[in-house]
Amino acid sequence: MIYQTLPDFLIKNQDGVDISRWSLRGKYWLFVFSSEAAELEDPDFSKLLNKFAVQLRPSAGIAMITSSSSGVLSRLHKEHNLTFDLFSDKEMVIWKSVNKDLPDSTGECFCTVLLDPWGRIRKVFPDHSAEDFSRFIVQEMHEMVRHDLALNAEIHTRRAFRAFSSRTVERNSILRILEAGHLAPSCMNKQPWRFIVIDDSEGLKRVQESLSEGNYWMKKAPVLIAAHATKRDDCTLNDRRNYYLFGTGLAVGFMIIQATQMGMVLHPVAGYNPIELKKLLQVPEEAVMITLMALGYPGDPETLGDKHRKIETGDRIRKSLDQVVSWFS
Ligand SMILES: Cc1cc2nc3c(=O)[nH]c(=O)nc-3n(C[C@H](O)[C@H](O)[C@H](O)COP(=O)(O)O)c2cc1C
Predict the structure, then answer these.
(1) H or E stretch including 296?
(2) Which of 83, 134, 186, 206 has the most CB atoms in a 10 Å sphere around its CB?
(3) What are phi and psi of 58, to 5 degrees?
(4) Distance CA 4, CA 98 (A)
């Protein structure tokens, strides 16, 4: 899911402090839009927002956004003992961007927007009555925070599955997965990863010859992707820190997550003859052929040998977290 982000803006809060899109990051926000600050004169509504502002602290904030001036907002904030923020967006820049599909009217605007700590618009409620707030707006906010704190669903679902179906993978889908890898971070932005895609039957046959015996299952994958990198494309730092292998691993990790999200399996292996493979794919001798990946849609575990079928349908095996994590104090 790709979410719309807020536009750049510079507005003031009730204390005359500048508020920009960047200053709001790191916290969830409930933006309550109102064309006039008059809505605050309703003591029930103000009281309700005050109550929710306290409940949502410190991970989330509430801001009412109106076209009224910072001076008017300052007076109202004090008069009504408000514990949430009031933002003065005279040109209604934020509201217009949220409602950009609506006709450009300066008329009434009542809506509530849920924002996440990255400034992404996660949900827009076209209206907001006190009842809506009590019934589901705040509930949705809690739900969103809970969802974000949960283990990422694709990381949870991913396995190094080995059974592939014969379903073709479109080149557009392959490109999407490569794009995800290419968005990975790298030391000094060196982007050391290089990928070679093999998706035609002749090429696949030739590459399959370099596979180790145990990786027979890769012969059913409709796409293979080789990842290589050279030390030349690296930032080498003191104490033997070479990052080209690390960077390429990160990119492959991103690709695996993207493929999982798209309902596919991307399985990296080390079991192949790297020297033969480099020669075949015309990769320079000094490069490291880091991994060969099998890409495709999941298939029937019955096509696998006994050992792999058991792994395919069995539980994930992991050391306990305390065997690999320690806390320094
Ligand atoms: C660098 C690397 C090399 C691997 N090589 C092979 C391989 O040659 N053959 C294979 O069947 N699986 C290979 N795997 C998959 C691992 O066996 C698998 O990730 C591990 O058993 C954990 O299982 P899971 O990924 O399903 O949690 C490799 C994985 C990585 C990251």
Answers:
(1) strand 288-296
(2) 186
(3) -95, -5
(4) 8
Cis omega before residue 58 (within 30°)? yes
CA–centroid distance, 67 to ligand 1, in Å, is 57
Whole-number Å distance, alpha carbon 160 to ligand 1 midpoint, is 6
Residue 206, CA distances (Å) to 28, 211, 307 in order: 52, 10, 26
The residue among 95, 80, 68, 69 whose CA lies nearest residue 40 is 80
Average pLDDT over residues 233-259: 94
C-beta of 268 in contact with ligand 1 (< 6 A): yes
Is the Cβ atom of 269 under 6 angstroms away from ligand 1? yes
Residue nearest to atom 21 of ligand 1 (CA): 160
**In contact, 61 and 84? CB cutoff 8 Å:** yes
Domains of the chain: 10-149 (3.40.30.10), 157-324 (3.40.109.10)
In sequence order, what are the beta bridge partners of 267? 294
159 pocket-lining for ligand 1 (C-beta < 6 Å): yes
Phi, psi of 241 (to 5 degrees): -90, 100
Mean pLDDT confidence for 81-98: 89
Confidence of residue 106 (pLDDT cuts 50, 70, 90): low
Alpha carbon distance 43, 47 (integer Å):
6
